[in-house]
Specification:
The protein is α+β, with helices and mostly antiparallel strands and 183 residues long. Helix content is 34%, strand content 27%.
């Protein structure tokens, strides 16, 4: 598998639409439709309908505004420490009724991109440092959609994004199998 494409640089706002997530009172949780939560994004680079367990009761309008669609990219928006802000995860599952929480940012591609590639790529140490530079830290660490929009990133063609994302998926599965074997 060769990777030969040049990487081009773009502002984040030119390739993704960014939106803050849903905030609801605790009485709305436990029943309803699925909700992608902070820990889903913190724990997994790849989320599907099988990884999302949270439930929330919403209106049809809220479901539309905060929808999760295949190929959406998510960021942890806030944390106690800068190490946990801006962690990324792609939703690559089936189309289901699902929304995302207020502790997350949704980045929906404006152009043909592989969000799973970006989930892996933006978790690399160099890109994590870049995201942290665009965050603010007061009592809590925070990355805003406005600040994230200003960040510049380099990436290859969609064909190479697909190859790289598939390679990381294969490596993740091998690691998972080795961990099970060791256990």
């Amino acid at each position: 598998m060769e990777f030969t494409d040049e990487w081009s640089e773009h502002k984040f706002e030119n390739i993704f639409d960014i939106k803050n997530g849903l905030n609801k009172g605790k009485d709305y949780f436990g029943e309803g439709i699925r909700i992608l939560n902070y820990m889903d994004v913190n724990k997994y680079e790849l989320n599907t309908e099988n990884t999302i367990k949270g439930l929330v009761e919403l209106t049809d309008d809220e479901i539309e505004r905060y929808s999760v669609k295949p190929n959406d990219l998510f960021f942890t928006r806030t944390s106690e420490t800068s190490e946990e802000i801006g962690l990324t995860s792609a939703y690559m599952g089936n189309t289901i009724k699902c929304v995302f929480s207020g502790f997350l940012l949704r980045a929906r591609p404006k152009i043909d991109l592989n969000s799973l590639f970006f989930a892996y790529y933006l978790r690399s140490p160099r890109q994590r440092n870049n995201i942290i530079k665009f965050s603010s830290i007061t009592t809590r660490a925070l990355i805003s959609g406005g600040n994230l929009s200003k960040m510049k990133i380099k990436y290859p063609s969609i064909e190479e994004q697909n190859k790289i994302a598939n390679l990381f998926l294969i490596l993740d599965k091998k690691v998972e199998l080795l961990e099970k074997k060791i256990s």
